[in-house]
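Hey,
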Amino acid sequence: MLDTETRVYPERWYILLVFSFMTMIQCAVWNTWGPIENVALASFPTWTDSTIGLLANWGNIAMYIMFIPCIYLVRRSLRAAVVLSAAIMAAGASIRCLVWFGISEPLFTVLCHIGAFLNAAAGIVLCSAPPALSAVWFPLQERVTATCIGQTFNGLGTFVSYLFATIFVKQKAANATDLTNIDVEEYRHEINNYLVVLAGCSVALLWFSLLYFPSKPPSPPSRSSEEERLSLKSGTMSVLTNTNFLLLLTGLSVANGTIGTYSSIMVTNLTKLDVNGKFISENWVGLVGIVGSVVSTGVSVCGAVLADRFQGRMKLMIISLLTLSGVLFTLLSLVTLQVIRVQDYLSLEILVFTLLVAASSLGQGIAPLALELAVEICYPASEIVVGGACFIGYGTISFLFLLVFSINGVGTDWLNYVLPLSVFSAIPLFLAVNERYPRLEMDLN
């Protein structure tokens, strides 16, 4: 092992970018309906809030059904897993475009659910594989950054969905009573264009993955990347019995799962805020989603670069980010509860925008750090097993969040409290984690 030649290849950046853009579009397809929820409900009369919730929740339902086959496929061949994921993602996004051919609304609804399931299955691979990809393609001084880019581009999908929705769906009314039949037809046509653009992006990424995406380079980038990992069964048992990992997993899932899922339905909560009868608009919330995704990605990448430069301090960085995020989310909750009041509409927009974007960016910035720390804690368990477990944890919290949101009669008042509670509850869990870096030490020594 000590005589193994290590080498890095420039192609690693192409591999990472293709993979990262796939994770981004996968999230955009998942979040198709969040940015245009009110318009979709007005355009498709048989749809309800529960329909929108279920379309989003397929991402979590499919996770429990397809998780083991997907993780097994990644262990066998990273290329096969990524190409297959690109194919089913493209298929899931494309079948919704059949609405162009005048299919009935019930059939369109069924195709939307099928497409959501296919896209969710692709997401299992794309959301679990970043640490595995960084381990086989990137040297130790770039690993956290590579994992971060592969993971946080998924969050940029929120930006893409809100951006495309803003461009293609001109939202002139907030509910069905404000719409004429001409408006409904115009909205349906705009929604069709929106769906076609998302499908086109998915198909293009399938082509790039087919063109070039090997499972690993000819020579490893580090010593640890060539070390034999535990088998899928042994690695899973090792991970599930690792107390430090379970503490980290719970903290990461509660904090990031809540923040990430809230972003997909924040329209429902924030459009209730007003000053003198003037309410925050759906388009403005879309703008917050766009900027928030970009800023969150930037914060995460900066944190990852620092973690690569100052190795062995990820726990301190995670706790610091969570503390700042929790304080800002608390202030945001006081605004939504109208404990903190402002005198004019512009001040309300500035305050909500600043608090939400800053708090979300700091809170979500812990994800790549926590994922790489989890890989270190669980070594020599496979990176895909650890990444998959973190994905299951995130998805479980997201599933429970959307399940509560989809229950008729529960209301939405609880959304005013859930963000600060989730972030602050994660901090003691991370404090209890005993951090260690056996994989890093192998590469350094």
